[in-house]
Structure formats: structure tokens, C-alpha cells
Amino acid sequence: MPLTALIVDDDEGFRELVKRLLGPGVRVVGEAARGDDAVLLATEVRPDVVLMDLEIPGLDSFAATRQIKAAAPRTKVILVIPHEEQAYLSSTGKTGADAMLSRRAVRTEVLSRIRAVVGGFGGAWDGRPPPALRPPELLQRLADTASLVFDSFRQPLPAGVRVIGPSARRLLYKAGRYMVRLRVEPGADSQRLSLVGQILDEGFPKMPLHDLAVLVSSGGKTLDRTLTNRLGEFLLQPAPLKNLRLSVQAPEIGSFIVPLPSVERPRGGGQRSNTRHRE
């Protein structure tokens, strides 16, 4: 079974080079060009190893490394540094990274460096089962994926009520003490969806949830990303692909995933149906 990797670099050409160098023994499960996106994707896909450029935009690589290790303790992080400088190499412990690799050595050493940090870890190399989750880790894992509480397309309509014209799908999810309200409908552009949402903290209802990172992805690819406003609200407009997932970076519990229902692309040049669709 191949190892899984997440590649984090704002240079698309470099990401493609790394994918070719990894070969069949390492399966790339996601790519990111920013530090905050890397944290959300690593929390979602939980790769065996993250290869991350030291000088990424957004959340800096040191902070991203610490957050990834907190959300996915079994994931190893290798920082790709610009030069073979002792100042970088001696700071590995302070950054929380498992190893560093100079950019010029990637072509010749990336596979050996991955084996060095992943060797003896979990079942990827030696067949041993992963260690049992301790209670705090178990509680964290329970909050990793939000559970669906309400879906307007699956609830029976009250007697005598008819729906005329297009109706947005309303969803409510719960992850730990956090609630996520969503309204999903085709966007003005027929090639996009409109995801309007709000994040609420039941434990501290009056606390503003502004500047939380929210992104929507499919198959490890980020389709759209944003930050919440001071009311915890956000708007995303991804392409209507299958297996859409919403990732939210929440205080204290870290990132959690909201698996979105499948939404069909509108037919007839973007014209919406006047009948209510039910699954």
C-alpha cells in the first residue's frame, strides 16, 4: 500500500516535479499553495507526510506545521528550505517539523527523506497497527467530521403547504459545540454553486467568529476559499462537482469537515426547475 502525501508550494511547476519524483510508491492525495489551505487539507485527508515549502504565502510554514501536527499527530512534516543553511537545519525541533530538505536536494533525496521520517510509523512501512487513540485524541476525532442535523430536502412538508418555484436546500450540521448553517443553490452563473453559510459557537454564542478559514474541496483540490465575517458568515462559489467537502478551521478543536450532499448541475442553460427536488 503506497504512502500518502500532501504537497504544499505556491509554485505549480515545483509541485508537478515533486509528484513525478515520488513515483508509484507515494500517492499524492492533495495539493495546496497556501499555509492555511495546507492545514485544512491535511486535517481532511490525514496524509502520511506533508512536503511543505518554507516560504509559502498565507499562514507561515512554522505555524502551519504546528497546526497540522496538532490536528493530525501521526502526519509527518518535511519543510523544503531554500538553501542548505545550518541555521535552518538546526531549528527543526523548534518548528515542530520532522525533517528539513533543501530545495536543490529534492531531486535526489526526497524519497530517502520520506522513508527516514515515516519508517517504523503506523502500518505504512512495517505492518504494525497504529497506536490506540488516547481519550483526548478520541474526543478530537469525534469532532473532525460534522454530523448532519437537518436537511430541508429530506423533511416532509407540513400538510397543505406547496412549494412553487426554485427552493434553496437548507442544511444544518453539528461538530462538537459548533453549528454550521448552509444554504445551497445554483449560482447566478450556471457553472457555479452558491454556498451561503454561518458558523455558530453554542458554548459562547456571543463570541464573534470572524476570520475563520473556510474552504470547499473535491478530491483533495481546493475549489474556493474565504474567511468568515464578524457574524461568522461566509459565501463560497465552487463548481458543482461530486464529493464536495467543506473544511472549517475552528478555535480549540481545530479543523473539521462538513461532507456536502451531491448537487446536480442545473439544466437548460442555467434555468432552474420549478419543482422541488428530493433525494
Report what the structure shows.
The protein is built from 8 helices and 14 strands. Helices cover 24% and strands 32% of the residues. With 279 residues, it is an alpha/beta fold. Helix 2 packs parallel to helix 3. The strands form 3 sheets. A 5-stranded parallel sheet has the order 2-1-3-4-5, sandwiched between helices. Strands 6-7-8-9-12 form a 5-stranded antiparallel sheet, with no helix packed on it. The chain folds into 2 domains: 129 residues, Rossmann fold (3-Layer(aba) Sandwich); 119 residues, Immunoglobulin-like (Sandwich). The two termini are 36 Å apart.
Summary?
With 279 residues, the protein is an alpha/beta fold.
Helices and strands in order:
Blueprint: E1 3-8, H1 12-22, E2 26-32, H2 35-45, E3 49-53, H3 61-71, E4 76-81, H4 86-89, H5 92-95, E5 99-102, H6 106-118, H7 122-125, H8 135-142, E6 147-151, E7 169-175, E8 178-186, E9 193-201, E10 213-218, E11 221-227, E12 233-236, E13 244-250, E14 254-259
Parallel strand pairs: 1-2, 1-3, 3-4, 4-5
Antiparallel strand pairs: 6-7, 7-8, 8-9, 9-12, 10-11, 10-13, 13-14
